[in-house]
Specification:
The structure is a homodimer. Helix content of chain A is 44%, strand content 25%. Chain A is an alpha+beta fold. In chain A, the strands form two sheets. In chain A, strands 1, 2, 3, 4 and 5 form a five-stranded antiparallel β-sheet that branches. In chain A, strands 6-8-7 form a three-stranded antiparallel β-sheet. In chain A, helix 8 packs across helix 9. Chains A and B meet through helix 4 and helix 6 of A and helix 4 and helix 6 of B. Chain B binds a DNA duplex through helix 9.
Chain lengths: 228, 228
DNA sequence: CGGCTTATTGACATACGTCAACTATTGTGG
DNA sequence: CCACAATAGTTGACGTATGTCAATAAGCCG
């Protein structure tokens, strides 16, 4: 493993608070790969062999129905743990993970993860905290899908993308519009129309770059307070 | 605390594997209450003061939009940990919890939970495992909402309610049809129509009792394999 | 047996999906 | 660097699943 990768690994929230010894134990057999666009990291239905940690780049979590229709469950980026539960429980993946922007991914053998859970208290703790965070993002998404219209979901997504809560910003969509549409539970066409709906609210966009004239206004429109 | 409650507590998966000492530390200040129908255990937006463990009865997790529209995120029953992430992260609840069938609920002070996370390795471990399970149920629900029609979601829900995978069964809805409709992301009217749609597939119901003539057929209809 | 809530049914509205045409954008080989 | 194909995004016309509103029917309880 490269020294630069070791540093990146150390910054992954899941591992950041581990003792040097615990870190060493857990990462003993880690492999780090640079993977190109569209690489499949894991496949829905299969059993996990590694825990994947995203060091850089973007990964999409894709769920598919048996009819073959696909949707994006969520996007993951640097510092994210990919599908910990499947590894922890040694259960089949409920979704596939696909690299979108060339990414560096650390592969931790599943056995090492499960052993670390039993043996390294700090690791279980960190894992629990991470999962708690993901829990909350999923609750938000479930509420969004059930309670908000397509344009409102888009607005909420855009506000979430921005670090600011007022003024004007530019944000970059994490993926092409087809994927974003899937993440928001709609078709690309509906996403286009949702953008048109938000234009009067000061949302303009070209490709992945979106400009928000007034974040606060957008947040009001979609009742963004609900988050956090 | 009653002796019977101690036994129930011991069977909650979150606590089942703890050492006697760890269990004693964590439950030192536990209070157990019997709570009637409609009691609010926690309110969306508020900060958690207790971790709630369901010893018996049923609890509904209710999310609301700022417009005041409510939806059911999920149902919880005996053995479930209510909203651990909010307590763990000391973050505001993203949903409210409401008792539906008179329930016995254990209240663990939030401070004790956070202390136990830091001090009791076994507890963090158990917490991580529990959260991993919930993670999966939410992934399933997100996929269902995005990929399946209303009748398909109902079918999947019914199959999940049954412990069998073939033959005929009777299942009991966890709550009245309005709540079930919300859980499935639809209106009560649509739920009624979804039941009508499933009638040719051998689903008949009266109130909370639903009879499934052929679970396997229903599972095929909604591609139930996806689960676990 | 009324009066209450809860579930169903019907008529209608609408948000969103689908399909197809058209327009940008991106990438590639000459 | 341009031409061109290939891909991605937008727009329009239309269909449909689901929501909405109102009326009816079915449980439930005093």
């Amino acid at each position: 493993m490269r020294e630069s990768d070791r540093e990146l690994l150390r910054q992954v929230p899941l591992l950041a608070d581990l003792s040097e010894a615990a870190f060493a134990t857990l990462t003993r057999r880690v492999l780090v790969h640079s993977l190109p666009h569209a690489t499949l990291l894991c496949r829905q239905g299969e059993r996990p062999e590694h825990l994947h940690l995203v060091l850089s780049g973007q990964v999409t979590l894709v769920g598919r129905s048996d009819a073959g229709v696909e949707t994006v469950v969520d996007f993951f980026g640097a510092g994210d743990v990919l599908i910990a539960p499947a590894v922890m429980l040694d259960a089949p993946y409920l979704a596939s993970a696909r690299v979108v922007n060339d990414a560096r991914i650390a592969f931790v053998p599943a056995d090492d993860v499960r052993q670390a859970m039993a043996a390294l208290p700090g690791f279980s703790h960190a894992l629990a905290v991470q999962l708690a965070r993901y829990w909350r993002t999923f609750i938000r998404q479930i509420k969004e899908l059930k309670l908000y219209s397509a344009p409102e979901r888009l607005a909420g997504f855009l506000v979430g993308l921005s670090s600011q809560r007022e003024g004007s910003t530019k944000v970059a969509l994490p993926e092409d519009r087809k994927q974003v549409a899937a993440r928001l539970g709609m078709t690309p066409e509906s996403l286009s129309r949702a953008f048109v709906t938000l234009r009067p609210l000061g949302v303009t966009g070209k490709g992945k770059q979106v400009t928000i004239a007034d974040v606060a206004r957008l947040a009001t429109y979609c009742q963004y307070d609900r988050v956090l």
